[in-house]
């Protein structure tokens, strides 16, 4: 196992991303055309679900919301856990909420739960057994980074430190509230405090970044496929990025590494 793959298995490391949408077929068409994903049936315990593959390697999951479930269409970041039940208890004791599970996924794939932090940001927990999670990251069409977008980093950091054991490294800047979360000296995720810029319709949320070869071209492709650009392409210290939404409104960020 590579160091990168081993890092993704560490307790607290983002290990999987999953999207619940209204139309599974339309969502598959969108991401298939944007990222070149191919789909195979996945566990069906919440309804129709498919696993997305790129070059035969598993990258993400896409499911269909039941018509009576009025949940936001959004990407969910899953954090690896050594023991989902123990992690769920820690989440509750630290002021978070466990909304689904813990429960076993199909065919001994793993044990999972859906939770939210004290600020309301939803995330998943995954204790992998036969399925450990995303098998490829950082290449075009695959997850590249996961980041919690919240009002301010200081109010929510203690929760994640206690539950997942992160060590936080602040970005030293007078006007940029950002923490990089480390596990055993490996950067695994970030927390971005955006103050009053936090979207009112979303509140605190985990953002999935997907790698692309050309951010500007990918943003144009998003609009051609029925999605839209939320924040236009811009340069950052880590590459050129844009925040976009798919054809059902699920937001994600695309990044072309510098």
UniProtKB/TrEMBL annotation:
Residues 13-128, 142-257 form the VOC domain. It comes from the Bacteria. PROSITE patterns: VOC. Pfam families: Glyoxalase_6 (PF18029). This is VOC family protein. It comes from Streptomyces decoyicus.
């Amino acid at each position: 196992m590579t160091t990168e793959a081993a890092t993704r298995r560490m307790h607290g490391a983002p290990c999987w991303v999953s999207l619940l949408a209204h139309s599974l077929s339309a969502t598959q068409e969108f991401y298939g055309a944007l990222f070149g994903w191919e789909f195979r049936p996945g566990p069906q315990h919440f309804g129709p679900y498919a696993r997305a593959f790129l070059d035969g390697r598993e990258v993400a999951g896409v499911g269909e919301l039941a018509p009576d479930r009025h949940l936001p269409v959004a990407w969910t970041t899953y954090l690896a856990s050594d023991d989902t039940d123990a992690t769920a208890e820690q989440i509750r004791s630290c002021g978070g909420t466990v909304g689904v599970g813990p429960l076993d996924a199909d065919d001994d794939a793993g044990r999972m739960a859906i939770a939210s932090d004290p600020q309301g940001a939803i995330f998943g927990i995954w204790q992998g057994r036969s399925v450990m999670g995303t098998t490829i990251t950082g290449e075009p069409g695959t997850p590249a980074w996961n980041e919690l977008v919240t009002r301010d980093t200081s109010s929510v950091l203690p929760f994640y430190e206690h539950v997942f054991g992160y060590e936080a490294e602040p970005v030293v800047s007078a006007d940029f509230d950002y923490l990089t979360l480390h596990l055993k000296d490996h950067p695994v995720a970030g927390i971005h405090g955006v103050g009053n810029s936090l979207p009112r319709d979303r509140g605190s949320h985990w953002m999935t970044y997907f790698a692309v070869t050309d951010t500007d071209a990918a943003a144009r492709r998003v609009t051609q496929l029925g999605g839209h650009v939320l924040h236009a392409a811009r340069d950052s210290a880590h590459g050129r990025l844009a925040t976009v939404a798919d054809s059902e409104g699920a937001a994600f960020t695309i990044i072309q590494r510098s």
